[in-house]
Write a structure and sequence with these properties.
With 308 residues, this protein is of the alpha+beta class. The protein has 8 helices and 17 strands. The structure holds 4'-deoxy-4'-aminopyridoxal-5'-phosphate. 4'-deoxy-4'-aminopyridoxal-5'-phosphate (PMP) binds next to helix 6 and strand 14.
Length: 308
């Protein structure tokens, strides 16, 4: 089964059987992409199962909804608790992916939904391992710069994690895979490096860590924020900077961040080897800090690990 371990789904306040969480074909979101969602990980840690930065993810879900003037008919803490509840119902204690989604449901189909258009909310959760493959975390992935650019500012807001944005991500990712790469990186419409199809991007050059700013059309990732703060902790401040395409080719190290990708090294871009083609030292140090949170080797002063 694609969704291993998924037995129940939280659907509009009820826990229903996996196969009973259904929507009408005339749901607004199905036609116009009017959904907002999150991807969250549950880790098996040395102190039991914990959900990583759950509260921050749910805050971003509500912020995405706010941008689209969608009123989620639950409070943030209702949804936080529902995420915990559905992982417990599914007995997911060994590592899982949690997917809350709020969307304009069945009602009118017009392009200007009324304020009272119903917002449906569902939360699924299932067992999950490494997104870009088990070896990717150590050996890295091969990426290309996509022929598809990220959506331009003032077209579709990239800071909202909305369903419609993922048409862009799908074009980038499928093109990359069709050409034999693991993933694609998009440039912004002004030609600056933006992000991967579903990941933020960092590079290291002469000991300095760089990442594109929000103005380069990125989703401001929660793992990106985590890495910025972990870099600070180890005395390597990250600089947000506009990055040219060719800077990618000259980087000493490069890596993706994301809930799914975690911290995944990049070993080549457009078949040009990054650094020595192996996971870089700084990348490894940041991975140790990050995965150390779950193994218990590192402390968690920010309380990023939330109890279920
Ligand atoms: N950019 C895009 C387009 C994404 O879909 C994701 C995954 N949510 C990210 C970046 C990384 O964000 P996060 O670290 O919050 O998962």
């Amino acid at each position: 089964m694609t969704f291993k371990g998924g037995k129940f789904i939280w659907h509009n306040g009820q826990v229903v059987n996996w196969n009973d969480a259904k929507v009408h074909v005339l749901s607004h979101a199905l036609h116009y992409g009017s959904s907002v969602f999150e991807g969250i990980r549950l880790y098996k840690t040395s102190s039991g199962p914990k959900i990583f930065r759950l509260t921050d993810h749910i805050k971003r879900l509500f912020n995405s909804a706010k941008i689209y003037r969608m009123k989620i008919p639950y409070s943030e803490s209702d949804i936080v608790n529902a995420c915990k509840n559905i992982t417990t119902e599914n007995e997911l204690i060994n590592g899982a992916y949690i997917r809350p989604i709020a969307f304009r449901g069945y009602g009118e189909i017009g392009l200007a939904p009324k304020d009272d258009h119903n917002i449906d909310v569902s939360i699924a959760a299932w067992e999950w391992g490494a997104y870009l493959g088990n070896d990717a975390l150590k050996d890295g992935v091969e990426v290309c710069v996509s022929s598809w650019q990220r959506v331009a500012p003032n077209t579709i807001p990239t800071m909202a994690k909305a369903g419609g944005n993922y048409l862009s991500s799908t074009l980038i990712s499928t093109e990359a895979k069709r050409l034999g790469f693991d993933e694609g990186i998009a440039l912004s419409t002004d030609g600056k490096v933006s992000e991967g199809a579903g990941e933020n991007l960092f590079l290291v050059k002469n000991g300095e860590i760089l990442t594109p700013p929000a103005s380069s059309g990125i989703l401001t990732g929660i793992t990106r924020d985590t890495v910025i703060r972990l870099s600070d902790k180890i005395g390597l401040a990250v600089k947000e900077a506009e990055i040219n395409r060719e800077t990618l080719y000259l980087a000493d190290e490069m890596f993706f961040t994301g809930t799914a990708a975690e911290i995944t090294p990049i070993r080549s871009v457009d078949r040009i080897i990054v650094g020595n083609g192996k996971r870089g030292e700084i990348t490894k140090r940041l991975q140790d800090e990050f995965f150390g949170l779950f193994s218990g080797k590192m402390s968690d002063p920010n309380n990023w690990l939330e109890d279920i």
